C-alpha cells in the first residue's frame, strides 16, 4: 500500500507532483487497460490517460506531453479524485517508483539473516547486513560487501569478492578469485568464472587443455540475466565494465574486455579476446568473433555476426555486418522470393543476349 | 519385466492386441536392429519386422500397415512365438507403453518422501504424496499440489504454486509468485521467473533498472527442457498455455503470451510482449522479435528470424521469414556458389551491353 | 612459486631447457606486455621476447623460431639473468607448464574430503581419494572412480558412473544411468541426461510425451563447458567420444553419436540422431539438423547450418553449408550493399533490353 506522499517523498528528478490528494493510495501497478480503483497507472498516450481516469485510478503518472484534467491546488484533491505526477520519461518514472511495489527483498527475508544451513568458510569475511540463503557455499577468504545478498544454493569459491549491495540470486556460480563490484544483480544459473575454452592440438589431433589461471572482474551496477556464462581469462582478466546489462543466455569468452553502460540482449555471444567499448547495444542472438574490436556507441541489430572490427560509432546489422540502413535493404532484397527471381532474370538475360554460360 | 498382458491391460486406444501369448515377457525396449529374446520392439517397416522376428523378440508392436505373420487364435501363441500388437501410430504406441519401462520415478524414491535436509518454510502447503528431494528450498506460502515431485536442490520462492502431479527435476528455479499448472515436467537448470530485461536510459546513457513486479503463469501438461529461462512480466504475466512443450535452451522474455499445444525446438527465443497462438511449431534456434503476433497453426523452420507478424496459418522459414516453399528456393539460390556467380554474370552483361557502372 | 628446475623436471617432450639458472623463480604467468621480475612469460614473437628481457622476466619459454640471446653453459646463468626454455608449440608448452600455476584443486580442498553435508546413498561406491563438496547429492548405486572430484551442489542420480580422475564442478546434473569416462571435466550448470525432446502428436494436435529410457555415455578426457545440455537417448545411448571438447551452451540432442577429439565452440547445437565423426571442429553458434551424418576431419565455420550430410573431409561454412572457400565469396557478395545493387542492375538491364517483367 503506497500513498502519493511516499512517491512525492522520493524526490526523484524524473517525477513532478502536479495535483491531487497525497493520501491517495495504490496497492498495485498495472497497465492502463487494467486500471482500477486501487491501481497506480503509468500513461504515455491520451487514450491510456482516459482509461485510467474512467477506472478512477488513484494515482496516475503521466508523460508531460499529455494535458491533465482540471487541476485543483497543489495540496488539494483535483476534480477527478486522481493524484497526478508528471514525468519526462515514463520509463525513468517506472524505474523510480516500481521499487516501492517490488517485494524482491522479501524473497530473501528469513529469521536469521545468515541461514544456519549455509556452508561458510571460517576465513570468509562477511560485511554488515549481509543475507546468506539456505545451502549457499562461501569458500576460503571470500569477501562479501555490506548489504550484499547471496541467494540459496549459490556457490562462491575461494578468494572471490562481492561488492556492497550486490544481489546474487539463487543457484549462481562465482568461481575462485573472481571479483564482482557493488550494486550488481546476478540471476539464477549464471556461471561466472568457468574456464575459458582453450586447447593445444598435438600432431596426433589430440587437444591438450591449457589451464585458465586468470579471473573475471565485473564492475559496479552490472546486471547479468539468467543462465549466462562469463569465462575466466587465460592469464589475466575477462572484464565487464560498470553499468553494463546483459539479458539471459549471454556468453562472454575468456579475455574479453567489455566497457561501461552497454546493453546486450538475450543470446549475445562474444568470442575470446574481443573488446567492446562503452554505451553500445547488441540485439538478441548476435555473435562477435574472436579478436574483434568494437568502439563506443555502436548499435548492432539482432541475429548479426560481427567478424571484423567496428571502428566507427553507428548502427549496424547483418552477417557479414554492414551499416543498419544497408542491411535493411539487403534483407528486403533477400526475402520475398527475390533471390530466385533475380537468378531467373539473369538466366533469361543471358539467353536473350546469346551469351555463353560460364 | 513387463508381460504382454500388462500392455493389453493399458486399454490404450492406440494399441490393439493381435495374437500371441499374454505371458510373453520383455525386460527392455530397443530399436529393431538391436532386437533380442528379451526385447520389446516397435516396428514401422517390413525389414524392421523381419529383424524383430529373426531375433525372436517376445513382443512386437507393429504399425497397422505391416502384415503380420501366421496368426494363431487371439488367446493362443502364434507360430512365431512372438506376441503382436498393432497401432495406427508407432509414436503414440511408444507414448503409451514406454512409461512401463521408464524408471523415472525411482530416481526420486527415498526412505522419507520429504527428505529431512530440505528447507521448507512452515507456512508452505504441501499436498498429499509429495516428494521433496535433498536440499530443496521451499519458501513462504508456497503451495505444492498432490503427487507433485520437487527434485534435489530445486528452489521455489515465496508464494509460488505448483500443480498436482507436476514433476520438477533437480536444480530448477521457480521465482516468487510464479504459477505452474498440473502434470508439468521441468528439467534441470531451468529458470522460471527471473526478471524481464528492462532498463530506462538516462540522458547520460546510464541504464536504470525497471523492477519487474509481474510473474510467470504456466498451464497444465507443459514441458520445459533443461537450461531454459522464462522471464517474469514487467507488471502482469508471462504466460505459457496448456500442453506446450519446449526443448532445451528456450528463452521466453517478459510479457510474452504463448498459447496451447505448441512445440518449440532447442534454442527458440522470443522477445518481450510477443504472442504466439496455439498448435504452432518452431524449429531450433529460431528467434522471434518483440511485439510480434503469430496466429494459430503456424510452423516456422529452424534458424529463422521472425520480425513481423504472421497472421496466416502455414509453414514459414528464413530471415526475413517467408513462406517455407519460397525459403527453400531462396536457400537453394543462396548456397552452392550461386550468389558470386550471379554477381559476375551481372557485371558481364553490363560490360557486354556497354552500360555505365552505377 | 615455481623454479625453473620444477619445469625442467616435467620432462615434457614439448619443452627443452636451454640455459640459465634452474633456481630462477616465477610466482605467476602473464602475457609478455605485463612481464615483470617474478613473471614467467611465453613468447612467440621477437618483440615479445624483447619485452620479457627488458622486464627481466626470470623464466622465458620461447618458440624455437626465435633466437635467444647470449647463452651461458647449460647449468649456469646466461648473461641476461633469464632462464630459457624452447618449444615447438607455445600452446603445448602452456598446456605442460600452466598446471603448476593453476590452483584449481585448491578450490575443492576441505578439512574432510567427503564434506559432511553431502547426501550420499549408502549403496553408492566411492573410489579412493574422492572429493565430494558441500550439499552434493549422490544417488543409489552410483559409482565414482578413484581421484574423482564432485563439486558442491552437484547431483548424480542413481546408477550413474563417473570415471577415475574426472572433475565435476559445482551445480552439475548427471542423470540416472549416465556414464562419464575418466579424466573428464564438466563445468557448472551443465545438464547431462535430461530427457530427449520427443512427443507423439494426436489427431487433436495434443503432444503426448514419449518417455526417454536411454542414457548418455561420455568417453575419457571429455570437457564440457558451462551451461551445456546433453540429452539422454530415447532407447539406447547418446554418445560423446574420447577427447571431445565442448565450449559453453552446447546442446546435444537424443541419440546423437559424436566421435573422438572433436572441438565444438560455444552454442553448437545438434539435433536428434545425427552423427559426427572424429577430429572435427565446429565454430560458434553452428546448428546441425537431425539425422545428418558428418564424417571425420570436417571443419564447419561459425553461425553455419548443416541440414545435409557432409561426406567429405574439408572446411565448410554457411547456411546452407558450402565449402568454406565458396562461402567466403558468398558472404563477400551478400554484404556491402551488393544484393540490392545487383537487384537494381538486373532491373536496369531488363529495362534497357526492353524485356518484359516476369
UniProtKB/TrEMBL annotation, chains A, B, C:
Chain ranges of the Mannose-1-phosphate guanyltransferase C-terminal domain: 115-195
GO molecular function, one term: UDP-3-O-[(3R)-3-hydroxyacyl]-glucosamine N-acyltransferase activity
CDD domains tied to this protein: LbH_LpxD (cd03352)
Enzyme class: transferase
EC assignment: 2.3.1.191
Alphabetical list of InterPro entries matching this protein: GMPPB_C, LpxD, Trimer_LpxA-like_sf
Keywords assigned: Acyltransferase, Lipid A biosynthesis, Lipid biosynthesis, Lipid metabolism, Transferase
Classification via NCBIfam families: lipid_A_lpxD (TIGR01853), PRK00892.1 (NF002060)
Name this polypeptide is given: UDP-3-O-(3-hydroxymyristoyl)glucosamine N-acyltransferase
Organism (species): Bdellovibrio svalbardensis
Encoding gene (name): lpxD
Amino acid at each position: 500500500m503506497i500513498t502519493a506522499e511516499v512517491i512525492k517523498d522520493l524526490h526523484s528528478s524524473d517525477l513532478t507532483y502536479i495535483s491531487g490528494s497525497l493520501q491517495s493510495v495504490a496497492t498495485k501497478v498495472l497497465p492502463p487497460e487494467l486500471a482500477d480503483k486501487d491501481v497506480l497507472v503509468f500513461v504515455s498516450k491520451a487514450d491510456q490517460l482516459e482509461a485510467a481516469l474512467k477506472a478512477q485510478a488513484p494515482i496516475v503518472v503521466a508523460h508531460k506531453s499529455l494535458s491533465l484534467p482540471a487541476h485543483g491546488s497543489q495540496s488539494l484533491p483535483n476534480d477527478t479524485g486522481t493524484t497526478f505526477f508528471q514525468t519526462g520519461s515514463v520509463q525513468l518514472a517506472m524505474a523510480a517508483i516500481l521499487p516501492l511495489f517490488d517485494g524482491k527483498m522479501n524473497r530473501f527475508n528469513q529469521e536469521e539473516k545468515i541461514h544456519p544451513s549455509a556452508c561458510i568458510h571460517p576465513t570468509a569475511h562477511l560485511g554488515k547486513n549481509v543475507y546468506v540463503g539456505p545451502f549457499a557455499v562461501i569458500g576460503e577468504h571470500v569477501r562479501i560487501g555490506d548489504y550484499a545478498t547471496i541467494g540459496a544454493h549459490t556457490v562462491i569459491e575461494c578468494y572471490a569478492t562481492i561488492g556492497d549491495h550486490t544481489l546474487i540470486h539463487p543457484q549462481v556460480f562465482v568461481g575462485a578469485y573472481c571479483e564482482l563490484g557493488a550494486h550488481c544483480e546476478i540471476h539464477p544459473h549464471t556461471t561466472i568464472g568457468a574456464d575459458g575454452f582453450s586447447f593445444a592440438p598435438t600432431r596426433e589431433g589430440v587437444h591438450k587443455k591449457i589451464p585458465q589461471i586468470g579471473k573475471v572482474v565485473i564492475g559496479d551496477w552490472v546486471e547479468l540475466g539468467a543462465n549466462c556464462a562469463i569465462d575466466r581469462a587465460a592469464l589475466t582478466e575477462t572484464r565487464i565494465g560498470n553499468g553494463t546489462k546483459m539479458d539471459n543466455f549471454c556468453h562472454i569468452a575468456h579475455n574479453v574486455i567489455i566497457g561501461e553502460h552497454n546493453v546486450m540482449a538475450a543470446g549475445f555471444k562474444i568470442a575470446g579476446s574481443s573488446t567492446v567499448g562503452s554505451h553500445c547495444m547488441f540485439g538478441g542472438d548476435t555473435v562477435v568473433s574472436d579478436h574483434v574490436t568494437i568502439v563506443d556507441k555502436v548499435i548492432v541489430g539482432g541475429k548479426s555476426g560481427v567478424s571484423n572490427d567496428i571502428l566507427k560509432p553507428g548502427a549496424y546489422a547483418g552477417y557479414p555486418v554492414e551499416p543498419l540502413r544497408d542491411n535493411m535493404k539487403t534483407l528486403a532484397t533477400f526475402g520475398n522470393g527475390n533471390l530466385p527471381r533475380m537468378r531467373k532474370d539473369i538466366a533469361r538475360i543471358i539467353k536473350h543476349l546469346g551469351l555463353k554460360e560460364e
